[in-house]
Design brief:
The complex is a heterodimer of chains A (174) and B (152). With 174 residues, chain A is an alpha/beta fold. Chain A has one domain: Glutaredoxin (3-Layer(aba) Sandwich). Chain A is 40% helix and 18% strand. The longest helix of chain A is centred in the first third of the chain and has 21 residues. Chain B is mainly alpha-helical. Among the domains of chain B are: 70 residues, Cytochrome C biogenesis protein (Helicase, Ruva Protein, domain 3, Orthogonal Bundle), CATH 1.10.8.640; 31 residues. Chain B contains 6 helices and no strands. Classes of the chains: A alpha/beta (174), B mainly alpha (152). Chains A and B meet through helix 4 of A and helix 3 and helix 4 of B.
Chain lengths: 174, 152
């Protein structure tokens, strides 16, 4: 009887630790889900004399992708971002994080530009408002400008198919 | 030749500027005190005060700027938590959600001690074995036999 109790406790502990192994401490849950996307006005990467502000996207479902030319995982997710942009279900706006505009423009030239436009966050201050702590990160923002989803790390085809696309579809309908 | 290479290397060492000393030591100590209470999200086991990650530098600058603007420690913490969640606090907050985190070890310790006491009390409970008369006599004889050789 005692053996069964000890075995039971052991198995419960194993289950708990097993679940723990599947969790990723790097994926800090964002408190901004359900909150309005912070406002800003930043110069556009390809046209620095013009500004971009999230208010311009009001009424549309859109995706904000934080990227940088010095960021290898950003290159890794680039095909997925390109695929998303190609579907034309939501404009993909880039937020160029702490980059040199020349390097960023060259990166887009070299790899292709999936973004409707990119805004330059040279100091990373605006990104802090978005709770960015690494690149790449991707946000899905609804028609009222509310953040509905945040992907920390590169966007994978899996996440695109199971999380991002269904959400965008749902938000587009609403 | 080696001297030239060594000198060239030394050149680089001299060329790097030391980080400027803080203009306002009082502000700096306040900044670092608050930074010690916040977590670096990149090097997650370090506080914002300890970490050298670029994000940590940026966030320390944010703290410094906001202190200069007159924001209180509480307001700055709220700023960070609003953007990064409770995880940015180096010490987990004392909320219903974290009760298990705070009291878990204590509960386990108490449970362990309780289990230990229970086991020990059970071991003492079994009554001492009663000896029959024959066994008592045999025991006495054995003990006498054991004593005798020693008296010699």
């Amino acid at each position: 009887m005692r053996f069964a109790v000890i075995l039971g406790i052991f198995l419960a502990l194993v289950a708990l630790l097993g679940v723990g192994l599947t969790l990723n401490p790097r994926e800090v849950p964002s408190p901004l889900i359900g909150k309005p996307a912070p406002q800003f006005s930043l110069p556009q990467l390809q046209a620095p004399e013009k500004a971009f502000s999230p208010a311009e996207m009001s009424g549309k479902v859109w995706v904000l992708n934080v990227w940088a030319s010095w960021c290898p995982p950003c290159l890794l997710e680039h095909p997925v971002i390109t695929e998303l942009a190609g579907m034309k279900v939501a404009p993909v706006i880039g937020l160029n994080y702490k980059d040199r505009p020349d390097d960023a423009r060259a990166w887009l030239q070299r790899n292709g530009n999936p973004f409707h436009l990119s805004a330059s966050d040279l100091t990373g201050t605006i990104s802090i408002d978005y709770g960015v702590y690494g690149v790449p990160e991707t946000y899905v923002i609804d028609k009222r400008g509310v953040i509905r989803y945040k992907r920390i790390g590169p966007l994978t085809p899996e996440i695109l198919k199971t999380k991002v696309l269904p959400l965008v579809e749902e938000l587009n309908r609403g | 030749m080696l001297l030239v290479v060594a000198l060239a290397g030394a050149q680089n060492a001299w060329a790097k500027e030391a980080a400027p000393a803080a203009e306002d030591p009082v502000l700096e100590s306040r900044v670092m005190a608050l930074a010690a209470e916040l977590r670096c999200l990149v090097c997650q086991n370090q506080s914002l005060a300890d970490s050298n990650a670029p994000l940590a530098v940026d966030l320390r600058n944010q703290v410094r700027e906001k202190m200069r603007q007159g924001m209180s420690e509480a307001e700055i913490v709220e700023f960070m938590v609003a953007r990064y969640g409770d995880f940015v606090l180096f010490r987990p907050p004392f909320k219903l959600a974290t009760m298990l985190l705070w009291f878990g070890p204590l509960i386990l310790l108490v449970a362990g001690i309780a289990a230990l006491f229970y086991r020990l009390s059970r071991r003492r409970a079994p009554a001492e074995a009663e000896l029959t008369e024959a066994e008592r006599a045999r025991a006495a004889e054995l003990l006498r036999a054991a004593d005798d050789p020693e008296r010699r």
